[in-house]
């Protein structure tokens, strides 16, 4: 019996996006530690919005996904600590998908038996 698994393209897209989210999280974390209540810039809002949109394109079956909205790019911008919470939610969604049976079955099929999410 065939076990359900993601395609190579889905796996690759997930890896690329997870790595991008992780990098963005790390950078915002550094800034949030220095000045957590400072507002982010429109550029940072656009970068976070880009990963939110991409995540919603590749993940459709997460209970918390509909609660994540794109950030404003003008006016009342998010603070660094709020942005970090949003990025943390994105990481969590990606991690749940990574640990799903479909991803595990694909990793086994290509001989990658690790289940580490972060590719550092």
Task: Write a structural description.
The chain has 120 residues and is mainly α. The protein has one domain. Helices cover 60% and strands 0% of the residues. The protein contains 4 helices and no strands. It has helices at residues 8-34, 42-58, 80-98, 101-109. Helix 1 (8-34) packs antiparallel against helix 3 (80-98). The protein is elongated. The termini are far apart.
Helix-strand blueprint:
Elements: H1 8-34, H2 42-58, H3 80-98, H4 101-109
Name its key features.
120 residues; mainly alpha
Q: What count of domains describes the coordinates?
A: 1
DSSP strand tally: 0
Radius of gyration, in Å, reads: 16 Å
- The low-pLDDT segments are none
* Share in helix: 55-70%
β-strand percent reads under 5%
Largest sheet: none
Order of helices and strands: HHHH
**Number of distinct helices:** 4
Which geometry do the CA atoms define? elongated
Mean pLDDT: 91
The end-to-end distance, rounded to whole angstroms, is: 35 Å
Q: Which structural category fits the helices and strands?
A: mainly alpha
